[in-house]
Specification:
Elements lengths: L1 E3 L11 E11 L14 E9 L5 E3 L1 E3 L1 H5 L10 H18 L7 E5 L8 H5 L3 E5 L3 H9 L4 E2 L5 H11 L2 E7 L8 H11 E12 L1 H7 L11 E2 L2 H10 L2 E9 L5 E8 L9 H13 L4 H27 L4 E4 L3 H9 L10 E2 L17 E2 L1 H6 L4 E4 L5 H10 L5 E4 L6 E3 L3
Helix pairs in contact: 5-6
Length: 414
């Protein structure tokens, strides 16, 4: 199921230096029945390529074990649905696409949430996603979706059958890929000469600045910065012309890309701004990431101390958001149901299961509220605004603890 990597996933160098060990952990999304056999644990460590600066996991886990049946459904998040409309309007401004004749293609399209706004505007859309359950869900919604793992070979097959697309979307998937160069080659293949490619990935800079170690899990093979990915893009004739920091995943690097032979390409100031910031933060420096490792250990201890203090005072503690990121946070800190009684989640696919490793029951939100908790930990803190709204509307007046980004903190009632 897993093997240690010997070469950088991006540039192929064998110069890899370890700097963070989060122990042995199960796959983050492997929630399971309470009586089922516990999922196997794997090494969860980070290293950095000293040649290109890419931060990455020290092992590869078989992709089919993580993505063939996937629990996260994009459309269950109001934040994601709203963001999908924003992204649609933004891309269309740059691509100057026309519903009559132009196509929109998305890799790792999940349930089709980010293709839906394009479909609503009359565009022909197509998605590809390895999760059979999600592809089936998308197809039922009228979003044509192929259940395949994307690669340059699959890209050629898609172009042969459907043609190239004026808009290509690649959100929250590049970090999952063991062979980044081949994957990028596939994206270049499906893009028309005058099209726009959008790549969105949880930003290594956000992880570094916000101490977001909970985003480190086996699905995320790489932790990408602009400086680490730009050389690979240019090798393929692709040019980043605009960068933003998106609201999903606690800060996502969003790259707007055109083929560099496109006569209309104009590099926006945002690209230079990102470059300068990465230099200032030392994102390509091993020393910077070694300091990050020390801060992670200190944060975990502080988080556990807060929870144990509340428990010692007889407080009932629950969580909200049985997210993949919560799995890393809970397992690294050795938190189980003796501390957090249960975790509420709005995704019905997770109800009746327990979290991997920590073995905490996952329940519908109302079931948790009925137990009258004193403290709720916002584990899926990247959706903090949305979750706090749900919690406050329930009438909950206890303490809300947000573990990240930065130091653990209680938020006041608003």
């Amino acid at each position: 199921m897993s093997q240690t990597i010997k070469h950088c996933r991006s540039c192929g160098s064998d110069s890899l230096q370890r700097f963070l060990d989060l122990g042995s952990q199960p796959l983050a999304n492997s929630l399971h029945g309470e009586k089922d056999v516990a999922p196997k644990a794997h090494e969860l460590c980070l290293c950095q390529c000293t040649e290109c600066g890419l931060v990455q996991l020290t092992i590869d886990v078989t992709a089919g074990d993580m993505f063939s049946d996937y629990l996260w459904v994009t459309g269950t998040s109001q934040t994601a649905r709203s963001y999908a409309k924003e992204i649609c309007n933004e891309i269309l401004l740059y691509a100057k696409a026309n519903p009559i004749g132009d196509k929109v293609f998305e890799v790792a399209s999940n349930d089709g949430t980010f293709l839906q706004p394009f479909k609503d505007k009359g565009f022909k859309v197509i998605g590809v996603d390895p999760a059979r359950n999600l592809a089936e869900l998308a197809n039922k919604k009228g979003i044509p979706t192929i259940s395949r793992f994307f690669s340059s070979q699959v890209a050629r097959e898609i172009v042969k059958e459907f043609g190239r697309s004026k808009v290509v979307i690649c959100r929250n998937v590049l970090a999952h890929i063991p062979d980044i160069s081949d994957f990028l080659k596939g994206l270049e293949e499906v893009l028309t000469p005058d099209g726009v490619l959008l790549i969105e990935v949880h930003y290594a800079g956000s992880i570094l600045e916000g101490l977001q170690y909970d985003s480190i899990y086996h699905e995320h093979a790489s932790y990408i910065s602009l400086s680490s990915i730009w050389p690979r893009l240019r090798e393929l004739g692709l040019e980043v012309f605009h960068t933003t920091l998106g609201p999903i995943s606690g800060g996502s690097l969003t790259l707007y890309i055109k083929k560099n032979n496109n006569k209309e390409i104009t590099i926006k100031p945002s690209v230079k701004t990102f470059q300068q910031k990465e230099i200032a933060t030392g994102i390509s420096s091993l020393e910077t990431w070694t300091d990050f490792s020390t801060n992670v250990k200190n944060h975990s201890k502080e988080f556990v101390d807060i929870l144990r203090d509340r428990k010692s005072r007889g407080k009932k503690i629950c969580g909200f958001g049985a997210s993949a990121r919560s799995s890393t946070l809970l397992n690294y800190a050795n938190i189980d149901r003796s501390i957090i009684k249960m975790i509420a989640d709005s995704n019905p696919n997770k109800h009746g299961r327990v979290t991997a490793g920590s073995q905490i029951p996952v329940v519908p939100p109302m079931e948790m509220f009925d137990t009258k908790p004193d403290v709720i930990v916002i584990l899926a803190w990247n959706f903090q605004k949305e979750l706090v709204s749900i919690i406050r509307k329930s009438g909950f007046e206890g303490e809300l603890l947000v573990p990240l980004p930065g130091k653990p903190k209680f938020i006041t009632k608003k």
